[in-house]
Amino acid sequence: MSAYAVGHLHAAARHEDVFVYMERIQATLDPFAGRFLVHGTEVEVREGEWPGYLVVIGFPDIDQARGWYDSDAYREIVPLRTRHITADVVLADGVAPGYEAAHTAARMRQQAG
After folding, report:
1. How many CB atoms lie under 10 A from the CB of residue 45?
2. What is the model's pTM?
3. Where are the domains of the chain?
4. Contact 61/70 with Cβ under 8 angstroms?
5. With helix as H, strand as E and coil as C, how does 42-98 read?
6. Class of the CATH domain delimited by 3-112
7. How distant is the alpha carbon of residue 40 from its chain centre?
8. Average pLDDT for consecutive 10-residue bins of the chain (113 residues)?
């Protein structure tokens, strides 16, 4: 099942360290089959507020996502970003093929009952 690393970057800093981070990140993703799905784009806010930018990286599964984030190669470059950009980063499992929210609602309703 696919998994994702999602980053909400609160401010985009134009700093040499950030440029180096961007130049080097793909090499940290490659061993884990990670690929950018969304990268630094401004979002179209339809509800609530979203100050900043969005990054979404897809992985084959949650173990690959964890492996990437915890890898020595990524840990080496992450300070280049974190020193200059405030962000929230999460890892999340995707849903299985054929997933239906109605089934989840039914299960939750039964558990709440």
Report:
1. 9
2. 0.91
3. 3-112
4. no
5. ECCCCCCCCCCEEEEEEECCHHHHHHHHHCHHHHHHHHHHHCCCCEEEEEEECCCCC
6. alpha beta
7. 11
8. 96 91 98 96 92 96 98 98 96 95 94 89
